[in-house]
Amino acid sequence: MTSPFLKISPEHYIAENDLVFAINDGYPVTLGHSLIVTKRLVPTWFEASQEEQHAIIDLINMVKTQLDKKYFPQGYNVGFNAGVAAGQTVSHLHVHIIPRYKNDVPDPSGGVRHVIPHLGNYLKMTPDEAWLKWYQKEIQPAWRERWPDPTNVKAAFLAGAKWAGATE
Predict the structure, then answer these.
(1) CA gap 80, 97 in Å, rounded
(2) φ, ψ for residue 21, nearest 5 deg
(3) Burial level of 32, CB count in 10 A (0-12/13-18/19+)?
(4) β-pair partners for 98
(5) Segment (H or E) for 77
(6) Max CA distance (Å), the chain
(7) How far apart are CA 166 and CA 168, in angstroms?
């Protein structure tokens, strides 16, 4: 396994410690969008050592301080994608630090919840409305056949749990 992050020269780091480094994102979504990357090639947060995880948190705080002084953002989204299903395109742990600015989007309500766009703003719909919208748009036909009466799926959805009986 290789990683494009390991080809980046340390002179391009904006911060580092013994286990991780920070760089400017090559495809920034906002001014100051940065990445924290492990020096060891590890696929996701869940395979990283506890020491690496702590080093990431330490560097997030350091980079946030730098970004505050340079760009004066009004907020932040911080997170990672773990696995292809979650949108991870580089199989090397990296954490996004995305500075947010007033009016950078029309309505930021829901923040990271917008990874599933139609469910992002939970403040504008009831749990039953969110459930129905999700079920109608996202459940694949094979699953509809498996659960013609989606009562157990709805209960799991509303409880934030995995689908009852799901094996796929």
Answers:
(1) 9
(2) -135, 160
(3) buried
(4) 77
(5) strand 75-79
(6) 58
(7) 6
Q: Quote the tokens at residue 15.
A: 């911060």
Q: What is the CATH number of domain 4-100?
A: 3.30.428.10
pLDDT tens digits, the chain, 168 residues: what are they? Answer: 799 999 999 999 999 999 999 999 988 888 999 999 999 999 999 999 999 999 999 999 999 999 999 999 999 999 999 999 998 999 999 999 999 988 888 888 888 877 656 555 656 666 666 656 656 665 545 555 555 555 565 665 555 544 444 433
Residue 25 DSSP SS3 = coil
Q: Would you kindly state where each structural domain of the chain is located, as residue ranges?
A: 4-100, 111-159
Predicted TM-score (pTM) of the model is 0.72
Query: What's the token pair of residue 115?
Result: 């990874």
How many CB atoms are closer than 10 A to CB 9? 6
End-to-end Cα, the chain, rounded Å: 26
Closest CA to 37 of 26, 29, 76: 26
